[in-house]
Amino acid sequence: MSRHRNLGSLAQDDDYDYDDNYGSDDDQYNNGPPDGMSLDEENNEGYDYIASQVGNQFTEDEIVDALRKTDYYPEEALDLLFQQHEEKQKKTQQTQKPKKKKQPPPPKNKTAQAPAKNVNNQPAAPKKGAKEEEDQGNMLASFGRGKQVQSTQASRTLLSSGRGTAPMTESPITMGRGLSFGRGSPILPVGRGTMTGVSMGRGSSVGRGMMMSVGRGQTLTPQKDQEDDQEEEQEDEQIDETDNDDEDDEMHQDNNNSIDAIGKGPVPSVFGRALVYPTYPTSPDHFTRAFLSSHQLTLHKDASFTFDEPSPDDLVLTKGKSVTNKQMENEPFKPIVKKEGKKPKKEKTPSSTTSTTTTTAPPITPTPVKAPPQDTDTMSRINVVIIGHVDAGKSTLMGHLLYQSGAIDDKLIHKYKKESQQIGKSSFHYAWVMDQNEEERQRGITMDVGVKHFDTTNKHVTILDAPGHRDFIPKMITGAVQADMAILVIGSCTGEFESGFKEGGQTREHLILVRSLGVSNILVAINKMDQVEWSQERFQDIRTQLNQFMKQIGLLNEKNANVHYVPVSGLQGINLRSRNGPPEWYQGPCLCDVIDEFQVDRDDSELTKPIRMSISDVYKSMSTGMTVSGKVEAGTLSVGQPVHVAPIKATCNVKSITRNGNNQVQVAYNGDNIEVGLTSSAFELESTLMSGQILCDIDRPIPCTNRFLGRIITFDLDIPITNGSSVQLHMQHMDVPAVVSKMVCTMNRQLEVIKKKPRVLVKNSCAIVEITIIDHPICIELYNEFKSFGRFMLRMGNKTAAAGVVTELKRIKKNKKKKVDKIADGVENVKIE
Ligand SMILES: Nc1nc2c(ncn2[C@@H]2O[C@H](COP(=O)(O)OP(=O)(O)OP(=O)(O)O)[C@@H](O)[C@H]2O)c(=O)[nH]1
């Protein structure tokens, strides 16, 4: 069954309205599951978890401080608390103890220091007194929730499994093995000697192979190392099984939570609000910081958080006293009552925006949202992506239109004619206007998006000429994400339209893609009409087939007013700039007139949002220096404005803004396709600035994460999507490998859950899934907050498998975060003025 028929049957037979489900307008997305965040819940959990572990051992301030310092990873925070505690103790001991004789250092060769073994090559029995030491060590290993075993190992070691108890003991034994079985739990280096670190569960394995095992009184030889490794692996497997159960439970819980959240608005908890208070500059991890910063924005908005309210710490303290969020919101601010004997806290006013736990970091003052200055240019601006099957004549059509519009002069066209003739490609001379790259010219195909500008009577037009070849679909997507409307170019020659329109042809895929990316205004240029003698029959036949398909995918609106057809010849330049030739049977407007008549709806609310511009290209220019180009998706950008480059943690200043190819302007507005010259010292960033990065507000940068929930619609799938399916995620100018890490539920046309935890997703399903990015976090927003950064496409193999919108951002998974730290190491804290 062809894709055409599948979609058709879906619409007709299954009573499934693609348009209704997919959402022909953006409101469809808004009716879906809420964009509630799990961050606050997780952190509440984190706080409670720590509090349950430490009882009165640490103050709330200390816990909150540790949580902040560890990016709110409860287990890391717990470790940090213990580490700090131990350091304190050490210091106290050092000041109290009389100086001992210095012990000889342990020999480097561990074999030489091997403890005696018995005849069975087993470790010798522990010396007398070791038992007492064991008891003294009183080490508890906790496997699973609430299940505890007494360890025989004599060491001061922490074993923690899952979210179980993680006791801290005070054994004086210096060598041991630390096993941390928690969700990516870090190893707690509490022993004074060497210890083995094995962290199991949820795929994280920290320190294995890096740390030496000297526990259990065994000699460490390379062979023994291997044996140990094998032993650990076995343990790993066992624990993994346990952990998987745990994970399953949690996953189910998560799934249920996600499902339960559907239909309810995001209600941030007080602790969540405290976390996202704008005093988070001290986090060591940029990505998490950015993640929180943006949520700060979301939560502030949703929770009406004002500076007149209690400070975060006060809220945290109140939270610690098990007061419900609701109660707290209604409760007047109460100052913290300090515990006796504790160092008094620095004085602060409840309405202050400065951190109560950190004194070193300067406070961040959120940029007040100013009304953008009035745009003096009265002509509207439009971004047009040119799509269609390979060789349909897209570049030729645009090259000729630019020439007729005066954007290209005679001299240049003459030059291209001559040069293309020399390599036997004379018919491509107009295409060369768009295809600037040497390889593109040699091969006669577009490989990257060509950007050019021209004016119609009423509009500044930015052309984004997308490649038609299926190998360059990712590039085509980067063009389509910037577009307000699309020109679909159809080669009308016999067989040409058919090959582009059949299953797997790019005419269909491009239409589905633009539709999924929110572009609903289409101009169909039926090209190469000179080759079919301007046949009206052929024109009508193509039109009928395309209309039918566009209706099926929800592209054609009720009045068909958003789709226009124009018969043209790109090579001959007919019906491009004016009605200048055949056919007589066509009385409609020329291509330019249609563009001129399109209404571009700019969402004014986007203007007051923090700046977001996705970088499509980076280059050095003689006039503007280090330059990045792209479309302003939200907010305004002014000359002199400092901007944050995510995710590389760089700060630059805007030196110049060029609009419509050559107009130097002071301010660019959302929707503008611009070139931004950055301060000269941005040359230092030359090797790190790249397409796909985001220029964003310095105080409210874009969040970064590697995990999110999205609502997707699947297309004609060759293989069903299952839990763990590998996909390629496309978002803005990014294109990264990812996996479908959870299948939350499938939904019907009313967006009601029809099945929880489905095993497979077949074609034309609507579902909520969790996506995990494999390599490193990406810049991403909730669809309801920033539409352009909340839309994504999933491709499997060489085919578009699904389109979706981001409904919930999840915290960066720890193992992934570590990778990110490494990646970002080279560009940490790049600050340019
Ligand atoms: N006869 C005729 N040939 C055309 C017309 N438009 C384009 N062509 C020819 O079609 C061939 C392909 O044109 P391109 O403009 O490179 O096609 P394209 O769609 O941009 O190709 P890709 O971007 O690589 O997908 C060239 O040889 C053009 O001369 C037309 O209106 N009439």
UniProtKB/TrEMBL annotation:
Which reaction is catalysed here?
A: GTP + H2O = GDP + phosphate + H(+)
Q: Where is the composition biased (Acidic residues)?
A: 12-28, 226-251
User: Which residues are the signal sequence here?
Assistant: none
> Keywords on this record?
Cytoplasm, GTP-binding, Hydrolase, Nucleotide-binding, Protein biosynthesis
What residue spans carry the Low complexity bias annotation? 109-118, 350-362
Q: Which residues form a coiled coil?
A: none
**Where would you say this protein principally sits, based on its record?**
cytoplasm
Instruction: Please give the Gene Ontology molecular function terms for this protein.
Output: GTP binding; GTPase activity
- InterPro entries named among the record's database cross-references: GTP-eEF1A_C, P-loop_NTPase, T_Tr_GTP-bd_dom, TRAFAC_GTPase_members, Transl_B-barrel_sf, Transl_elong_EF1A/Init_IF2_C, UBA
Q: Residues in domain Tr-type G?
A: 379-606
- According to its UniProt record, which protein family does this protein belong to? Belongs to the TRAFAC class translation factor GTPase superfamily. Classic translation factor GTPase family. EF-Tu/EF-1A subfamily.
Name of the protein this chain belongs to: Cytoplasmic exosome coupling protein Ski7
Q: Which organism is it from?
A: Acrasis kona
